[in-house]
Write a structure and sequence with these properties.
single chain, alpha/beta, Arc Repressor Mutant, subunit A, Nucleotidyltransferase, domain 5, 3 domains, 5-stranded mixed β-sheet, 4-stranded mixed β-sheet
Amino acid sequence: MIITDGVLKNTARVLEYMLRHPLTTRAQIVKDTGLTPAAVSNTMNLLVQKKIISETGSEVRGAPGSGRSQKQIAFQPDFGFFGGLEINMSGLHLAITNAAGSVQYAAEIPLKQLDLSRISHEICTLIEDSIQKSGVPALKGFGIAVPGHLDQESGRILTNNPNWKHFSLGEIQKNFQFPMWAHNNIECMALGQYLNSKQQAPTRFAYLHIGPGVYCSFFNSNKLGDVKNFYLGEIGHMVVERDGTLCECGKKGCLQTYVSETWLLKKARIAHTANPSSYLASLCPDSEKLTLDHILDAAIAGDGFVSRMLDDAIEYLAISMANMFLTHEIEQIYLNSRLFQQEELKQKLQEKIFPQLEFLSVSHGLKLSVLPFDSCRGAAAGAMLASYSYFIKHPELLFTLELANG
C-alpha cells in the first residue's frame, strides 16, 4: 500500500479512537468516526499487519435486525513501550508504560538530591537507569511533562523558576535514538485523561491542578496539542478578592494565594509562629517543617485558624469553578489536588459550586470529578504524550522508523 497523507490521516483517527475504545468493532468505528467502511477496512488491515491491533475471535451482535454478528478487534497494548518524565517541585518522576498507558515501571529522584545545574544530565541518567532496570523492549518514544511551557526553538522551559534554567530538550535528545517530546505537565495530564481514563472522559473538559501553584487545561479533542496561548490556563492569577493577599505577580487577591499548597503553607507558618500554643503548632514544633498533611490533620481536629483558611480556599475556588462552567463549553471538571482527597473538604466544595449554577437548565448535567492523588500521574501522562505523538500526531513514524534504546 502507498502511504499517502490520506492513509496517515485515517490511521491517526482510527488509533485515537482505539486508544479510547481498546475493544470495539469495525462497524462501531465507522459509526463513531465518520470514516467510510472502505477507509476503516483498509486502515484495519494495515494496523493488523503492523500488529497494533488484532481480531479477538469474539463476536458481538449489533442492534436487533442489524444482520450478522460483528467481529471484535482489540488494540494491542504491548505493541510498544513509551517513557514519560515529570519535572516538578518535588523532583523527577519517571514512568515506563505500555502503548495503552499502563505503568510497567516507575522511579523518582527527590529535588534535594538533584544537581540542578546539570538537570539535563540527571534526566539522561535516570532514563538510562530506568530502561535497564525495567527490562522492557526498546522504547518507541519518550515524553517529558514540564512545569511551564517549552520554547520549541530553543528546547528550554519558559518559566520564572530558576530551578529549570539549565533544562535542554536538545541535550537530552542527543543521548537517545527514540524521539522525544515535551509539553506542559498539566496539559499532558489532561491528554492522558482523554486517551486513557477507565471512565471515558468527554471530548471537552477542564483539568484543574492544584499543587504548589494552580493551572487549568481547557481540553478540546478537536484541537489536540494545539495550545497557542500559554496564559489561558493560568487561572491561579485570576483575582477573586479585590483587596486580598498580595501575590508574587504584583496583583492582590489571586486565587492561588488562597488555595495553592505554597500559600497555604506560607500562611500556616505565619500562624504557627504567632500562636505557638495552637493545635497546628502541637503537630509540628518547627514551623519550617510544616507540611500539607499537618494542615489537613489540624483541620480535622478543628484548629480555628486552619479551618477558616480552608473555608476561604473552598469559597474562592468554588466561585472560580462555577465561572469556568459558565465561560467555557464544558460539562465536566477534573480536579487533581492532594488537598481535596479529604472527603469532608471535597463535599464542602461540591456544596459551594453547584448552587451557583441552579439557574441553568443543564445544571444537573455538570460534574466535578476529584481524581485520586497519584505522584506518578504526571510521569505516566508524559508517556501518554509520547504515545499520542507517535500514533496520532506523527503516524508516519509507524512506517519510517525502527526505534531502539539509546
